[in-house]
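Subject: design request, 144 residues
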């Protein structure tokens, strides 16, 4: 089985309880090194820890299929919440095509961590009830 886990907004203490449990007991961890806190990677008990920077979807899926079909617990750790800019749809489609079961554990998005840090809210009755989420076009920034 492959678990897509949201790492939260950066603070390693903001990962969900379920996400943390899966992280600790994973056999294989694939994470976005430029976006996930190193403390979370260190927290993982995985025997195999792979930074996905520079990997394409086919490479990641191949690794996940091989590990999952060998009975390994695989965690694909995404920054924030996997459903936001995570390319999980294409990964899940390929995994399921290979007969691999998939689960998603949501994470706290930096979107909501920002409002908490600012002690504010995004919607206000009578003022705005719409929230639009977007980002600049392009790929994740290169490592320095």
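Subject: RE: design request

Done. Sequence follows.
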């Amino acid at each position: 089985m492959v678990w897509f886990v949201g790492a939260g907004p950066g603070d390693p203490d903001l990962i969900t309880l379920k996400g943390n449990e899966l992280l600790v007991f994973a056999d294989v961890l694939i994470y976005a090194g430029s976006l996930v806190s190193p403390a979370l990677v260190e927290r993982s008990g995985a025997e195999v820890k792979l930074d996905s920077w520079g990997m394409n979807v086919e490479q990641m899926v191949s690794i996940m299929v091989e590990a999952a079909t060998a009975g390994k617990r695989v965690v694909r750790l995404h920054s924030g919440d996997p459903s936001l800019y995570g390319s999980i749809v294409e990964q899940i489609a390929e995994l399921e095509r290979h007969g691999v079961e998939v689960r998603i554990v949501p994470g706290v998005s930096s979107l909501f961590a920002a409002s908490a840090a600012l002690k504010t809210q995004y919607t206000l009755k009578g003022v705005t009830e719409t929230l639009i989420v977007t980002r600049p076009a392009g790929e994740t920034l290169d490592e320095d």
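The chain has five helices and five strands.
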